[in-house]
Amino acid sequence: MTTDILYSFRRCPYAIRVRWALLICEIKVEIREIDLKNKPLDFLNKSKTKTVPILIKKNSEVIEESLEIILWALSESKKEQIKLIYFPENKKEDIFQIINENDNEFKYHLDRFKYANRYQNSNEEFHFTKANKFIKRWNNLLSENNYFFGNNPTIADWSIWPFVRQFKIACESQKRTNYLGGSIKNWLDTFENNTKFRSLMYKYELWTPTSRKDYFPSN
């Protein structure tokens, strides 16, 4: 295998944050866009978790956790001092803490707010309120700086903005108002309005074993 392979799903926030890291780190991979309702056998045979994203390295090693793929991208990047910029040593503990908060607490309530009909006895309003507490706290944090830990983004910002974007989309679909404070809205805008966003969300054809190879980024 001559190229690292990323199994992805365009709208999955975990996959979005990995693709964002690959963009920033300037790493090109073969991308395989899959249908989560009809997962290809090749993917199922390679993945223990059966979820995206997963990265198949050139040496056939499999990385299944999105955060681990992000750290791999940092280590593989040829951009000078990229780890020092986006994963500073003195902020590592704080970065891991806020990502863990997002992945294990905010995401729990976000899912049950956005997809209330999928969860038995889920109280949509309760989970909106719980999720919104994180949004408000992060908004207060972002009122002090442009990003979570200063005026430069870190992998914490990369890892969390796709989930805040999901929260925004869910609120918009329910015609809710005043769901994002000014600081967190401006923060999210820096990613959604970034010139890389179109490449990030490029719509690939679904992969099959007979498909031609697609690459990310596409240009």
Can you walk through the features of this model?
The chain has 2 domains: 5-83 and 201-216, 3-Layer(aba) Sandwich (Glutaredoxin), CATH 3.40.30; 85-192, Glutathione S-transferase Yfyf (Class Pi), Chain A, domain 2, CATH 1.20.1050.10. The chain is 51% helix and 8% strand. It has helices at 13-25, 41-46, 66-76, 82-86, 92-114, 124-142, 155-173, 182-192, 197-200; strands at residues 5-8, 29-33, 54-56, 62-63, 214-216. The protein has a 5-stranded mixed sheet with strand order 4-3-1-2-5. Helix 1 (13-25) runs parallel beside helix 3 and helix 5 (92-114) packs parallel to helix 7 (155-173).
Could you say what the CATH topology of the largest domain is called? Glutathione S-transferase Yfyf (Class Pi), Chain A, domain 2
Using only C-alpha atoms, the radius of gyration works out to 18 Å
Question: Largest beta sheet: what is the strand line-up?
Answer: 4-3-1-2-5
Number of helices: 9
**Second-tier CATH architecture of the largest domain:** Up-down Bundle
Q: Describe the global form.
A: globular
Q: Which CATH class of the largest domain is shown?
A: Mainly Alpha
The biggest beta sheet, please?
5 strands, mixed
Number of domains: 2
For the termini, the CA-CA separation is: 21 Å
Structural classification? alpha+beta
Q: How much β-strand is present in the residues?
A: 5-15%
Helix content: 40-55%
Order of helices and strands: EHEHEEHHHHHHHE
